[in-house]
Request: fold
Amino acid sequence: MNIALIGAGGKMGSRITDNFLKSNLKNSVSYVEVGEAGIAKLAAKGIKPMAAEVAVPQAEFVILALPDRAIGKLAPPLLKLMKKNAMVILLDPAAVYLDQVPARPDTSVFVTHPCHPPVFNDEIDPEAKRDFFGGVKAKQSIVCALKSGPESDYTKGEEMAKVMYGPIIRSHRITVDQMAILEPAMAETVGSMLSTVLGEALKQAVKAGVPEAAAKDFMLGHIQVQLGIVFGDAGFPFSDACQVAIEYGRKYMIRDGWQELFDHKSVREQVDVMLNPEKLPLALKAMKH
Reply:
């Protein structure tokens, strides 16, 4: 088995490189990196990068650990170098969702993404508890999709994803379209946005005179209780008074019809502006009207 990891010294590539080095596949990987900083990171691990023109043609698995905005440009020439029956693995659905990764009839396209360590977990090791991203010490689940290729290739891609992102709790099989609903729509457009609002709310409390340490402890403690209630882990509901406050806040802050963010047209627009941020002002202007 030969594996070509493209972008091995980048943000995601470095994480995957570390996991390969800990696995029984460490001698099967060709690490491809062209950036000076990335090459330096690999050198610190005792790795000398290989040229893509050499690594890709001999690989059964070609992993694109590249920025989403670069995949549309870089993926097509790399796919032309792949040998028959090889698999390209992408770490995010965006480029595939927008048809920027041309599928060859004699190769497979597999997409996988980490769920990241859950808020409610059984981690005891202090390092695992501080592994917010996952793939180092903390266990996490993953989602996987076989975009094209024979059905038997799904298992091959999933097993590779488990090594890349391990340790793993669960692996979920979904479609690329469903993955785009999860990210960006659910996790980033809604989840990350609301997280920034929580941070801004904390700043407003500090601005109003509450000591920052007290405000942060209060906010983070309440977030855990609130998430436990909403996602059914706490075993009790919000208080009657809290439910009134929720309705007050919802009417004040949340726009009617926000659920349209999960419609296919909106999801596609979200992915498009993420890959082409120059389109964001126009999209926001149209949204206001």
